[in-house]
């Protein structure tokens, strides 16, 4: 590992702190180094706040050192006015002579313009350092910009005999939550919810489980809840419609909402459903979504290959009969035992 890679790794570590708060902005990390010592660090503030480079520069105690320092950043500094001024302008104004960048920003408003602005100001710029690692770190942002859709995470729990829910007959005789996984796995799911912008379920899941789809067993903000309800048949008393978080209802009906937290989006259920869903989420500036169910919804994404990660729990529970677990093929990226449960994470490479 060379010196530039060492500090870019630290930038990635810092950027991860912003997971779940910066979206739809990328979670950038930045450090400032003088004489092989970090003199400033920063990561992207919650959406609307200062970017990583600004926070790093502002954290430097002795500003005179900036004229001899190197700024490291995971993503090309922006060169345009958005909710904040261009980071490239502040870097130039600060007199920093060298900048090392992980990857270029593919956004049309940046796309090399930030680097060019720095070079035009006489700054020495090195780019594509730890490019693979920085791209993996910025997977949500890059998917949103390059594929015009959110980063899609499929999540389900299945029994050891291959079911994700008991049969209707069992539910009718014993109408209660049927937990497949243990409390530690369920807490991890709440952590994941706090990290992504949205969570998606179908109407059948709402009817069967009445989920809130909020973050309760972890600290963090609630995701936007996206509900498929073709005929607007779900009871308005369903927990998913409470005011704890924003709700987007995807329906075939034309409907207007009088509630601030509730939005209706009309889609054509006779056309490709997954592409319709992702198009609406993209329009709503959502760059990541967890698809939690049910089986029909998850299988639609699998069938069309419109997924990036699958996070699959297997518990020691057995149902003997019920709703079969989805069948999926992907690269096993990670496997872990969580108490009695097994978590496998696949990527759609």
UniProtKB/TrEMBL annotation:
Cofactor: how bound: Binds 1 zinc ion.
- All copies of domain CMP/dCMP-type deaminase, residue ranges: 2-126
According to UniProt, the reaction catalysed is: 5-amino-6-(5-phospho-D-ribitylamino)uracil + NADP(+) = 5-amino-6-(5-phospho-D-ribosylamino)uracil + NADPH + H(+); 2,5-diamino-6-hydroxy-4-(5-phosphoribosylamino)-pyrimidine + H2O + H(+) = 5-amino-6-(5-phospho-D-ribosylamino)uracil + NH4(+)
Give the species.
Answer: Croceivirga radicis
What biological process terms from GO does the record include?
riboflavin biosynthetic process
Task: Provide the cofactor list for this protein.
Answer: Zn(2+)
What the entry lists under Pfam families is as follows: dCMP_cyt_deam_1, RibD_C
Q: MF terms per GO, please?
A: 5-amino-6-(5-phosphoribosylamino)uracil reductase activity; diaminohydroxyphosphoribosylaminopyrimidine deaminase activity; zinc ion binding
- Return the InterPro entries for the record: APOBEC/CMP_deaminase_Zn-bd, CMP_dCMP_dom, Cytidine_deaminase-like, DHFR-like_dom_sf, Eubact_RibD, RibDG_C, Riboflavin_Biosynth_HTPR
Q: What does this protein do?
A: Converts 2,5-diamino-6-(ribosylamino)-4(3h)-pyrimidinone 5'-phosphate into 5-amino-6-(ribosylamino)-2,4(1h,3h)-pyrimidinedione 5'-phosphate.
| UniProt-annotated binding residues for NADP(+) | 157, 179, 205, 209, 294-300
Which residues of this UniProt protein bind Zn(2+)?
A: 51, 78, 87
Q: What is this protein called?
A: Riboflavin biosynthesis protein RibD
Family, per the entry?
In the C-terminal section; belongs to the HTP reductase family. In the N-terminal section; belongs to the cytidine and deoxycytidylate deaminase family.
The source's domain of life comes to Bacteria
| PANTHER family membership | 2,5-DIAMINO-6-RIBOSYLAMINO-4(3H)-PYRIMIDINONE 5'-PHOSPHATE REDUCTASE, DIHYDROFOLATE REDUCTASE FAMILY PROTEIN (AFU_ORTHOLOGUE AFUA_8G06820)
Query: Which keywords does the record carry?
Result: Hydrolase, Metal-binding, Multifunctional enzyme, NADP, Oxidoreductase, Riboflavin biosynthesis, Zinc
Annotated metabolic or biological route of this protein: Cofactor biosynthesis; riboflavin biosynthesis; 5-amino-6-(D-ribitylamino)uracil from GTP: step 3/4; Cofactor biosynthesis; riboflavin biosynthesis; 5-amino-6-(D-ribitylamino)uracil from GTP: step 2/4
């Amino acid at each position: 590992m060379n010196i530039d890679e060492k500090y870019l790794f630290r930038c990635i570590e810092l950027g991860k702190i912003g997971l779940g708060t910066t979206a739809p902005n990328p979670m950038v990390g930045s450090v400032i180094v003088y004489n092989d010592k970090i003199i400033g660090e920063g990561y992207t503030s919650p959406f609307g706040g200062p970017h990583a480079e600004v926070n790093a520069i502002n954290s430097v105690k002795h500003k005179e050192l900036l004229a001899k320092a190197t700024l490291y950043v995971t993503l090309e500094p922006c060169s345009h006015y958005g909710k904040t001024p261009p980071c490239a302008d502040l870097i130039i104004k600060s007199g920093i002579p060298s900048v090392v960048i992980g990857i270029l920003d593919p956004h049309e408003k940046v796309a090399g313009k930030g680097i060019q602005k720095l070079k035009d100001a006489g700054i020495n710029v090195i780019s594509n350092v730890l490019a693979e690692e920085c791209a993996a770190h910025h997977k949500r942002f890059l998917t949103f910009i390059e594929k015009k859709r959110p980063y899609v995470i499929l999540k389900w729990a299945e029994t050891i005999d291959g079911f994700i829910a008991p049969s209707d007959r069992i539910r009718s005789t014993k109408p209660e939550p049927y937990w497949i996984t243990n409390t530690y796995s369920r807490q991890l799911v709440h952590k994941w919810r706090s990290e992504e912008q949205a969570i998606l379920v179908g109407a059948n899941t709402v009817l069967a489980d009445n989920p809130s789809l909020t973050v309760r067993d972890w600290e963090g903000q609630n995701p936007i809840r996206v509900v498929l309800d073709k005929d607007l048949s779900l009871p308005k008393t369903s927990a998913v419609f409470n005011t704890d978080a924003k709700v987007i209802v995807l329906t075939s009906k034309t409907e207007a909402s009088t509630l601030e937290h509730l939005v209706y989006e009309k889609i054509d259920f006779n056309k490709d459903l997954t592409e319709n869903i992702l198009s609406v989420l993209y329009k709503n500036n959502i760059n990541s979504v967890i698809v939690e169910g049910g089986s029909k919804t998850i299988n639609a994404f699998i069938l069309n290959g419109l997924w990036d990660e699958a996070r699959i729990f297997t518990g020691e529970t057995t149902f003997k009969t019920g709703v079969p677990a989805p069948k999926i093929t992907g690269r096993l990226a990670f496997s872990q035992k969580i108490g009695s449960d097994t978590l496998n994470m696949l990527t759609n490479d």
